[in-house]
Amino acid sequence: MAKTNMNMLSGSLWDKIFIFAIPLAITGVIQQIFNATDVAIVGHYVGKHAMAAVGCNTPVVALMVNLFIGIALGINVVSAGFIGLNDREKISRTVHTGYAVVLVLSIFISAVAILCSSYIMGLLNVPSELMDQASLYFKIIMAGLPLTAVYNCGAAVFASHGDTRTPLLCLTIAGIINVVLNIFFITCLNMKVEGVAIATVAASAVSALMLIFFLRKDETFSFSLRQFTPDRAIMNRILKIGLPASLQGMVFSLSNTCIQSAINSLGADVMAASAAAFNIEILVYFLLNSFGQAATTFIGQNYAVGNIKRCFEITRVCLWQNMILTLLLSGFLLYFARTFLLLFTDDPDVIEIGRLRLMFILLPEGINVLLEVMSGAMRGYGRSLTPAMMALAGICGIRIIWVYTVFSRSPDFAVLMTCYPVSWFFTTLAIIIAYIRFKNRHLIPLTVKQHG
């Protein structure tokens, strides 16, 4: 592989942040295609009940995956700091410690999730006619959870020194394999939900193994399968940043799981429509989230060497680029909403419900830009707990209260969807206030001291 290290400590930022974030966003999109392909293929070849069975798993699967995305972010920040200091020994220790933590934890959670699958399906209020298919899909996907966790860990390691293209290459190849296997299992072997689940796990294995192969070739990290002994001090630093980030991601998924339970109570058409719309709207989330991760990584390196003014500039650039691109993509998806929904189903009732959901989610996405970039910046400074706690109260708290109060009194789909923009608004307001206070109390005094 050609060297793809990026100098984040000097030079222009507009081009570097863009080059970093866009492959990261595309990587997220391709990863989501795993699930979107499952939903689309079973929707067309098996039926809307199978489509609903696959789709209703999305929030709870995301809940599990977000735990490891958060830990991977902790690995990213710690590794980026050591890269900024050019401490090669600690870079290597960070990578090996991160992989050790991810492997042990993912295997444990995978086993627990499989054992508790029936209970989890019950919590989701999955209708009895969908229970067997939904549970089978969930068990197979959870069996492959360690593979997804290993991929996310490796992607975070590469991103810590500016390489977001290698993970994209691995996932692109895996995505093609996933589509081919989906079609083969469904059309040739007459499988149903188990076929698309097995295809997704197989593709995850390919992406994880390819990334490990390239990691071993990269001299920056000195990665070896024989050096998996964790460093306790580095592990604590990873978990200090990673666990709150995991909590924040899991809070989003937990609240969405609660909303999914409410959606399931509205019937198979609403379940299928939400599954289809989710796989469209999530494309915007991956874009805006990629700039949040860019803020984390770039600030992580620059904060480690004390370059505070550059950290401020990084935040501004991420906000502007993110806002412009997010609003453009949201408008494009809304304009062609019916066309995109037809990729998943030709049922007119399902399409209309899906269009309604997309309007509630995509129109206020500008608020989410502020939420993601400010949260990402705070994590780059090592303040991961603050945005996590605010997300717990503002995202999870508001949405759960909304479901059990407002929605329970008016069980209408539009009423349910209103909880998304409401929760985004109040959480974003709180995080902006927290960021300004942190900047005024801790960061500006540092710049004054540096130039005093």
UniProtKB/TrEMBL annotation:
Transmembrane segments: 60-85, 97-124, 136-159, 168-189, 195-215, 317-336, 356-373, 385-407, 413-436
Domain of life where this protein originates: Bacteria
Compartments in which it is found: Cell inner membrane
Single GO BP term: monoatomic ion transport
Coiled-coil blocks: none
Entry annotated with the keyword Transmembrane: yes
Main localization category: membrane
One Pfam family of this chain: MatE
S-adenosyl-L-methionine recorded as keyword: no
Keywords carried by this UniProt record: Antiport, Cell membrane, Ion transport, Membrane, Transmembrane, Transmembrane helix, Transport
GO molecular function: antiporter activity; xenobiotic transmembrane transporter activity
GO cellular component: plasma membrane
Membrane topology according to the record: Multi-pass membrane protein
Protein name per UniProt: Multidrug-efflux transporter
Organism the protein comes from: Ruminobacter amylophilus
